[in-house]
Amino acid sequence: MTTARKRARTYDSARIRAAVLAQFGNVRDGVRALDDERLARPAGLGDWNVRELAAHITMSLDVVSRQLGLPAPPVKELALLDWPFGTASRAGAIADGTRALADAHPDLDALYAAVGARITEHLATAPGDRLLGVPAGAMTLADFLVTRTVELVVHTDDLNRAAGTDIPFDRQALAACTRLLADTLAVKAPGASTEVRIPPYAVVQCVEGPRHTRGTPPNVVETDPLTWIRLATGRAEWKAALDEAKVSASGERADLGGLLPLMG
């Protein structure tokens, strides 16, 4: 497990809870509108189809409800910025669980309704410092909900591209996802020689080298939130994003290709 060396930024707990519920509602509305042809399309994630991707999204929230129904772990093990580094090792188990869930719930809207009702009820009363024994390790509910914005936003984008939908992004969910992944880069490549700008949500400094103190930084990377999220999660490649002018990079330390993706 990677130990975070950057102090995590503060997130407003009430806004994150509202953002998680809002984005889940957005996805439910989008999934409800999908016909059998679009549900059967490849999701672009291994051998999943869109139906399996839609089922998987419910898992990302139902884990909160399940863990709140269990005794709390005795000790916190993970800080928020540790979480992104522990996701890849669970890919196989997640894929198996997703297929089983999709097979067991042919009525996706009913599945979304049940999961939504459970998480809404739990988040109405559960304190933010309550520990959850999630697969990556024990985390506070408040921190884990920030990670849920990553799951929801990333997979909303996956759905939109695979199924041709136009599911909207809750602004707070998109902001939290963008910021957490930007801070993850700063943990992976600590330093202050390169400034990464993702307007309007995040600016971080990273990469070892001469520290910039005033004026325009010598090494600058700038991109939009969705392109950044795709780069950080392996949905887009650095060189292709540069060639398509979706990323601007100036300076000898502005090449982030060797640092991406941050999580798979």
| Rounded radius of gyration (Å) | 19 Å
**Can you tell me the residue ranges where pLDDT is under 50 for at least 5 consecutive residues?**
1-5
How are helices and strands ordered from N to C? Answer: HHHHHEEHHEEEHHE
Our estimate of the beta-strand percent is 5-15%
- Give the helix proportion (percent range): 40-55%
Give the full name of the CATH homologous superfamily of the largest domain: dinb family like domain
Major pleated sheet: 4 strands, mixed
Strand order of the largest sheet: 4-3-5-6
Number of helices: 9
- CATH topology description of the largest domain: Four Helix Bundle (Hemerythrin (Met), subunit A)
Morphology = globular
> How many β strands by DSSP?
6
Number of structural domains: 2
Structural class of the secondary elements? alpha+beta
Distance from first to last alpha carbon:
15 Å
What does this structure look like?
The protein is α+β, with helices and mostly antiparallel strands. The chain has two domains: about 15-175, Up-down Bundle (Four Helix Bundle (Hemerythrin (Met), subunit A)); about 190-260, Nonspecific Lipid-transfer Protein, Chain A. The chain has nine helices and six strands, in the order H-H-H-H-H-E-E-H-H-E-E-E-H-H-E. Strands 4-3-5-6 form a four-stranded mixed β-sheet. A two-stranded antiparallel ribbon has the order 1-2. Helix 1 packs across helix 7 (about 170-190), helix 3 (about 50-70) crosses helix 4 and helix 3 runs parallel beside helix 5. The chain is globular, with a radius of gyration of 19 Å. The two termini are about 15 Å apart.
